[in-house]
Automatic annotation (TrEMBL):
<keyword id="KW-0732">Signal</keyword>
<dbReference type="Pfam" id="PF03401">
    <property type="entry name" value="TctC"/>
</dbReference>
<feature type="signal peptide">
    <location>
        <begin position="1"/>
        <end position="24"/>
    </location>
</feature>
<dbReference type="InterPro" id="IPR042100">
    <property type="entry name" value="Bug_dom1"/>
</dbReference>
<protein>
    <submittedName>
        <fullName>MFS transporter</fullName>
    </submittedName>
</protein>
<dbReference type="InterPro" id="IPR005064">
    <property type="entry name" value="BUG"/>
</dbReference>
<comment type="similarity">
    <text>Belongs to the UPF0065 (bug) family.</text>
</comment>
Amino acid sequence: MHFHPLRLAAALLLCAATTTSALAQAFPNKPIRLVVTFPAGGAPDILSRLFADKAQLGQPVVIDNVPGAGGNIGADKVAKSPPDGHTLVMGTVGTHSINGALYSKMPYDMVKDFTPVAHVASAPNLLVVNNDLPVKTVAELIAYLKANPNKLSFGSPGIGSSVHVSGELFKSLTGTSMQHVPYKGRQFAIPDLVGGQIQLMFDNMPSALPMAKEGKIRAVAQTTAKRSAAAPDVPTVAETVPGFEATTWFAVFAPAGTPKDVVAKINTEMQRVFKLPDVVEKMKSLGLEPWISTPEELAKYQAAEMVKWAKVVKDSGAKAE
């Protein structure tokens, strides 16, 4: 039996195309696991649960909190999962932009090991201080740090988190020094901040703002270029320190090699969920700025952020111990 090489190639191509579209039709054929690289309660967890509650993909979306190593452990788990769309990660500016510059050895490549799905939201960090610290403004904090070098400690939910590098950026732009204390997650850092074991933190606004409103900690400033509508009366750090900007962001990634139509199917559903009026309202009330992107827009944004944060890490001399 003799096969014409061109016909054979065409048949193989047709076969491959049918398999890919069959994959998309068959997707999802089991629950989708959405890995959150930090413990429950923070912004990545809140966003993931909002999606899981509303997603209509024909299979449940199950949240899996895998904290540790500034989010690297959870992200690595997804990087090494089968590329079929059934395992996703709620990536952060840390796991997908900062950590590569900060950690001398990364378990995964922030670009090559993932397929971008969608950017979901960004948020300011909120510079919050212990109520007993005698500072109410950024200028007062800088003066206090200069008078008391290395006396204050700032906490973070892990090395490489936006919370950590916001502090490093602050130190390098103001010429001040303070100690960084990394925790396994923000829920371990906050009691120490309230109790005074650490004195300040650049926490994600969605988790810090409610505590500041309750009077448990004091909000001093926010880290975005413009004031967030969720806290219009809180000034930005940039109003005192020109050029200071640190935005934390959250985006979903799939393992590298995930079929395009599977990615498109997830992106379409994310676009729908994160544009629902009640979801948008909930996000905004927490200080989260909804921004749903295409996979291509996310890839471009991630590339720009990697350049920005590599410079901040280099200038600050920060290292992941």
